Amino acid sequence: MIVEDERRIAAYVKRGLEEHGYAVDAVHTGQDALYWARSTPYDLILLDILLPPPNGLVVCRQLRQQGSGVPILMLTARGTVDERVSGLDAGADDYLVKPFSLKELLARMRALTRRSDGGDGLPVLRVADLTMDTTSRRVGRAGQEITLTAKEYAVLECFLREPDRVLTREAIAEHVWNYDVHHESNVVDVYIRNLRRKIDDGHDLKLLHTVRGAGYRLTAKGPPP
Ligand code: CA
Hints:
Layout: E1 2-3, H1 7-19, E2 26-27, H2 30-39, E3 45-48, H3 56-65, E4 72-76, H4 81-89, E5 94-97, H5 102-116, E6 124-127, E7 130-133, E8 138-141, E9 144-146, H6 150-161, E10 166-167, H7 169-176, H8 186-200, E11 208-211, E12 215-218
Parallel strand pairs: 1-2, 1-3, 3-4, 4-5
Antiparallel strand pairs: 6-7, 7-8, 8-9, 10-12, 11-12
The protein binds calcium ion.
Calcium ion is lined by residues 4-6, 48, 50-51.
């Protein structure tokens, strides 16, 4: 989620991140930020400080008081030491001074989401001989590189982060698209079909399985009984 009242900036960042495979909700006030953050399991929040109330510092503090551990990257117009310190004091994980480049934003976001994975933050996800290097964004199976679109990559990442678990179409859509595609769940089916072709065709061991009436599962344990 990006929280930024300057709509031009919010739209620019949203578009840029979407081109890199992120699903982004943009909100423009502190109040909306709190509302959406409480009801949605975001992977990361980009939070501007100067907002229609409550401001970003208050939003950040409140989320932490409510026990939220979501990575928060503060956006600040002025890079004064005081402002940086107050952002970190409020519970932000990092900050970025405006104006910033999309490239730098992406790098900071990658660092934060790696950190928030907990544990050792291994950048390579793996199921059987299927691997995804989340640093270089390379995907391969049995040593052969697989070329994916940004959205296909994002769908596959959902599965690789929760191997053996059944993911519903809705859960996948929530992570990869915005809320407005929920009712068009066949969008997900189309992506799964393409993914399956790319990762399973030509291999004896199929990894991506349909679980009838429930969703899909990535596993090396074979199809459901
Ligand atoms: Ca602002």
